[in-house]
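Action item from last week, closing it out:
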Amino acid sequence: MTDVERSVRGDAAADPGGRVLCPDQAGPGLIRTQDPRAAVARAVLWLLVGVLTVRQVALVLRRPPGERLIDLETWTGATGVLHMAGSLYDPGRFTGTPFAGLVLKPLTRSAEQTLGVMWTFGSLLLVVGLGFVAVRALPAPVSRRTAFLAAPVAITLLMVSLPVRNTLHLGQTSILPVLLVLLACFALRSERLPGVLTGIAAALQPAALLFAVLFWITGRRRAAASGGATFAACTALAWLVMPRDSWAYWVHHFAGAGLGERPDSLANQSLHGALLRFGLEGPLEIALFLALAAVVVVLGLRRAARYARDGQLLLAVAVTGCVAVAVSPTAWQHQLLWVLLAVVGRVGTRASDRLVWPAVVVLVLTLPGKMLLPNVGVVLPVRDNALLVVALGAACAVPFLSRASPHWQRPVPTDYAKPVPARYAWVPLLPFWRRVLSRPNLLLELLLIRVVYSAYAKVRLAATAGRSTAEEHGRQIHSAEQWLHIDIEHRVNHTVVGIPWLREFFDYYYSTFHFIVPLAILGVLYVRRPPDYRWARSTIGFATVLALVGFWLYPLAPPRLMPGLGFIDTVHGVQDLESPDFGALTAVTNQYAAMPSLHFGWSLWCGVVIALLAPKVWMKALGLLHPLFTVSAIVATGNHWVLDAVGGAAVVVAGFGLAYALSGPRRLRTGAGTAGRPGREAGDTGGGAAGEPVPEPAGTKA
């Protein structure tokens, strides 16, 4: 373990080429020799850290008493449980260990306002300290760029993570045990003192006692013994001072199980909580939980010991923490910071796959489950237990690379296509945005698409305005169309209403094809033409973002919600214009997000992509029918003005233009080393292997 600690703390020398160094060597000299772009990136990241810090302090301190630092106020406030005579656990508001109550008791003498400010700033300092210790623990060798940027990146990730945000909101103590364990593993060179810190952490968060077991199985017997002894001493002290509370916590509630929220609530991301949510209870559930917990402990600690011997002690600590999360009777959100540390593990032999695991960990630890997966029955168990799934994966299943692997430092390089020169010298604005020939990782792609769509839906719903403003904009659009002599909506709407089969066709088309066709096109491109998939995905993404700006800046009432104009809402039925809510529909969507029309915009995108990429003329013609039918449907059903369709076309054109300006022309040619067929088009991989060029079908030149 001595060699392991030395390599982790950064005592290893840099390689002869000077391209790698250890965290301790990242001093002022490095900054002077670093790439100016990296220096700018570092400054921006530190600025982001400052902004997040100020924002978090403002969010906490601006809340009125009773709505901020909820747990801390419940403990130490004027009517808090630490002020009351009797047991800490009688009111059911204290969930910490008796030792934690003993430590917090002196805080009741502090002024409430002063304590809140000090607690918030103290917690933020703990987060910063945690980030620096974690960066110092990165396994050597570390590249100069990583060492230069790691600290602000780590602190930023910690600040935006759900556990830290939840801890700062509640006023919890869950950051302290994590920091104590990291200090024990990486900042102290003696044998007994690390055990003492680990024992104190376990006295505050009992599952941390697993780190004493990790010390034992990795050869640090003195640290393990002192950790167990410190935990026993702290717990005995609490028994001596508060015997009734200690009995209630350790015996009656079995190490805190059942305290706080219901153990089957989504907030409890342990195996025990998941089994309860699956409907198991009683002796069967307890027996199954104990059996699964034993398996996770054995597998997880064996893996952690292997990574520690491999010189990846930070990953070993993260894996042990994930084991603790899974086997604890209760693992509330603010206690799940261990899972974020698993981001340091390297997974995948290809450079294109290397970011998949970190991205999954960061997304799961920063976003709620409902943003990650849709509300579909088959994925609900994963969505509701996303944090537990990632913790179990890190503890038992994810194949982290060994430092002895040839791909640890040099993964299989990504196969890029050689770009075609652009018409303008300033294109592309982002030269590093090169087209990749292989398919993106499907799991990550689906996850990112879901996250982007969830963010789009939230922003779209938030971009609301008063009824009067939206109707005023509607009158402006109507007047402009009258002046242009294109105000055909009323005639088309009433004509279609008089033809039942045509009305049903447009109602169905409006409600159904908006999502199906774009998703189908992206799916086909992903399978058949990966480089074109990336281009197409970027263009529709840019168009959607620009549309959100339009929704926000120009809320617009569609024809069906304009009083006095006589439009008939054929899709949604009669809307009560006298009601402020306009019926039940307003509960699920922003009805004033009409300009630009993404119904038409996305359909136009579909038509353009099919026209550019389809191999047959009849396919191109069929693709162009989709925007024609869509514009007819949105006008006939009273859901959009004609000028909304013009706006939709504008954002799509801008989306294609942005993709061109940032990454260059769509047409690419393969460079050397891409299947050995120079001169072929990289955008036409057909049905062959990813990145293997095939002859381009006729009629697809653009």
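Closing note: The beta strands are 20-21, 142-143, 418-419, 668-669.
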